[in-house]
UniProtKB/TrEMBL annotation:
Annotated InterPro entries: MvhD/FlpD
GO molecular function: iron-sulfur cluster binding; metal ion binding; oxidoreductase activity
Full protein name: Methyl-viologen-reducing hydrogenase delta subunit
Keywords (A to Z) from UniProt: Iron, Iron-sulfur, Metal-binding, Oxidoreductase
Organism: Ammonifex degensii (strain DSM 10501 / KC4)
Coiled coil start-end: none
Pfam families, alphabetized: FlpD (PF02662)
Record-annotated F420-non-reducing hydrogenase iron-sulfur subunit D domain positions: 20-142
Statement: the UniProt record of this protein carries the keyword Mitochondrion: no
Length: 160
């Protein structure tokens, strides 16, 4: 019986597909995802895109709340700095996200679960690489305590 429980836990760990939220800028990263889809370039299906006007619109509180809701990882897809319509938006976003490290540690979330990456509108290879790398990193790290709660609630919902 104990062996069955251990085997079942291992299967659940292996089955864990990390949930990635990607905030994608409407001038660069989001069009890139669109081109990837139209070109039938496969990228991990566990990535959920949210289009934002500019990466500066992504508040640190929004990132923390997404983790609390059970997201395993977050990618902020920015424009390349010279292409940023708001001049220093990319650098300011990077600095704001770096300042989240102490709060993330306090929540029990590794800093590797948050990534800020410049993605141009036609660089589908970069988009694919970033999403695949993030998926692999998150699989190694395993689910966050918040993701475990999200999975438990989903199982209860499916059962009941």
């Amino acid at each position: 019986m104990a062996e069955d429980m251990v085997r079942e836990e291992k299967m659940e760990e292996e089955e864990h597909e990390p949930l990635i939220l990607m905030f994608a800028t409407e001038r660069c990263a989001y069009p890139c995802a669109d081109v990837a889809g139209l070109s039938k370039i496969s990228y991990p299906p566990n990535v959920r895109l949210i289009r934002v006007r500019c990466c500066l619109m992504i508040s640190p509180d929004l990132v923390l709340e997404a983790f609390r809701k059970g997201v395993d990882g977050i990618i902020i897809g920015t424009c390349y700095p010279p292409d940023c319509a708001f001049k220093e938006g990319v650098e300011r976003t990077r600095e704001r996200m770096k300042k989240l490290a102490p709060k993330l540690r306090e929540m029990g979330i590794e800093i590797d679960r948050l990534r800020v990456e410049a993605i141009c509108s036609v660089c589908t290879n970069v988009f694919k690489q970033v999403t695949e790398e993030m998926t692999e990193i998150l699989k190694l790290l395993g689910p966050t305590p918040y993701a475990e709660e999200r999975m438990r609630l989903r199982k209860e919902k499916e059962a009941g």
